[in-house]
């Protein structure tokens, strides 16, 4: 029993450690790894881990796997990320001061409001990253790839080395110390120097000129497109009008059919009532006696034929009574009479007196 309880406790402890989150001091145990300053996490698999607010100051995450992890608000000062897989991570408001990101892959990661001071990003991949309002100063960006990244409101200065690729419409200043492009934050740039100011204006003017040229090109194509669209609209309008007419005609036909159906329903109800009435009369008539029964019960004359060899006719009279002319019962007693037949007489008849 003690062994079972111990096993259960170890399992629960293991599960708590595996899924525990970072504490207020920025440390904790995640996926079995101790998270904190100076932690040795070389090649660690922290894919998709919740490391929000972690303090990994001077920690070693060389070649670590953190794809999809949440490191927002984390302290990453002096942290080793060389060759690490940092794709699709959330680094919002993280501090990369003096961090080594050389050879790391940060593609599709969110780097909004990050701070990178004296950081190493040599040959780092930052494709399609979001660097909105990022702060990059005195950092080595040699060979880094920023293709498709968002540099809106990026604040940069004293950049070392030249990136291999920048977002469309962005360049480095003439001295290569800061980023220049539409939406850049140039508060820290030395714009008192005419050469620097010229590089900024050239970049911004070039971008604006490209947009204007594109708009002019599109404008030249507009008349034909407008005519084509107008023709298409008129055709659609004509079709819509035809459809409206057909719809009106169909609605009229439907209303007519509805009226006919309602009239047929009324006639059918009348017919049903008539049939019901006739059925009642038939049932009543079926209760009455038949013609044969009436004939059998009515008074009248009866014709008798005389047999050739017969000399007498014997008549027997039985009296019956009935309440409904259908069912009859005989009264007690029977009257008979024998009548001699004169020569030459062939037929006789008798009738009841009225």
Description:
The strands form 6 sheets. Strands 3-4-5 form a 3-stranded parallel beta sheet, with no helix packed on it. Strands 1-2 form a two-stranded antiparallel sheet. Strands 6-7 form a two-stranded antiparallel ribbon. The chain has helices at residues 2-19, 194-286, 291-297; strands at 28-30, 33-35, 115-117, 135-137, 155-157, 171-172, 179-180, 301-305, 312-317, 320-321, 329-330, 335-340, 347-351. It has 3 helices and 13 strands; from the N terminus they run H-E-E-E-E-E-E-E-H-H-E-E-E-E-E-E. By secondary structure, it is α+β, with helices and mostly antiparallel strands. Helices cover 33% and strands 13% of the residues. The chain is elongated and about 165 Å long. The chain folds into 2 domains: 1-189, Pectate Lyase C-like; 291-351, no CATH class.
Primary descriptors:
354 residues, alpha+beta, Pectate Lyase C-like, three-stranded parallel β-sheet, elongated, disordered N terminus
Summary?
The chain is α+β, with helices and mostly antiparallel strands and 354 residues long. The protein is 33% helix and 13% strand.
How large is the share of residues in beta strands? 5-15%
Radius of gyration: 57 Å
Sequence of secondary-structure elements: HEEEEEEEHHEEEEEE
Strand order of the largest sheet: 3-4-5
Structural category is alpha+beta
CATH topology of the largest domain: Pectate Lyase C-like
Mean pLDDT: 82
State the separation between the terminal residues, measured CA to CA.
120 Å
Examine the secondary-structure arrangement and name the CATH architecture of the largest domain: 3 Solenoid
CATH 4th-level superfamily of the largest domain: E3 ubiquitin-protein ligase SopA
Helix content: 25-40%
**SS element count, helices:** 3
Indicate the multimeric state. single chain
The count of DSSP E runs of length 2 or more, i.e. the number of strands, is: 13
Enumerate the spans where pLDDT stays under 50 for 5 or more consecutive residues: 1-19
**What does the main sheet amount to?**
3 strands, parallel
- Characterize the overall form: elongated
What is the CATH domain class of the largest domain?
Answer: Mainly Beta
Number of domains: 2
């Amino acid at each position: 029993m003690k062994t079972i309880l111990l096993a259960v406790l170890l399992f629960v402890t293991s599960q708590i450690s595996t899924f525990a989150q970072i504490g207020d001091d920025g440390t904790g145990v995640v996926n079995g790894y101790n998270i904190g300053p100076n932690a040795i996490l070389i090649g660690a698999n922290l894919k998709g881990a919740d490391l929000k607010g972690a303090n990994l100051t001077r920690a070693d995450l060389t070649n670590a796997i953190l794809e999809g992890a949440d490191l927002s608000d984390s302290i990453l000062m002096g942290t080793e990320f060389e060759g690490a897989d940092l794709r699709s991570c959330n680094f919002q408001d993280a501090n990369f001061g003096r961090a080594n990101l050389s050879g790391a892959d940060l593609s599709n990661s969110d780097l909004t409001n990050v701070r990178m001071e004296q950081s190493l990003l040599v040959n780092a991949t930052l494709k399609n990253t979001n660097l909105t309002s990022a702060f990059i100063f005195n950092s080595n960006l040699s060979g880094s790839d920023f293709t498709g990244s968002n540099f809106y409101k990026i604040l940069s200065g004293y950049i070392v080395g030249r990136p291999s690729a920048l977002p469309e419409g962005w360049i480095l200043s003439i001295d290569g110390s800061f980023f220049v492009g539409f939406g850049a934050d140039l508060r820290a740039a030395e714009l008192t120097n005419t050469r620097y100011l010229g590089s900024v204006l050239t970049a911004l003017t070039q971008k604006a000129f490209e947009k204007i040229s594109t708009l002019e090109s599109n404008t030249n194509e507009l008349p034909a497109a407008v005519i084509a669209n107008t023709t298409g609209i008129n055709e659609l309008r004509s079709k819509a009008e035809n459809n409206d007419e057909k719809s009106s005609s169909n609605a009229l036909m439907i209303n007519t059919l509805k009226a006919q159906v309602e009239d047929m329903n009324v006639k059918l109800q009348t017919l049903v009532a008539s049939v019901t009435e006739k059925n009642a009369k038939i049932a009543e008539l079926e209760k009455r006696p038949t013609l044969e029964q009436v004939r059998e019960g009515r008074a009248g004359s009866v014709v008798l034929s005389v047999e050739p060899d017969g000399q007498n006719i014997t008549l027997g009279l039985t009296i019956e009574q009935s309440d409904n002319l259908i069912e009859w019962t005989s009264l007690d007693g029977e009257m008979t009479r024998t009548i001699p037949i004169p020569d030459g007489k062939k037929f006789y008849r008798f009738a009841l007196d009225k």
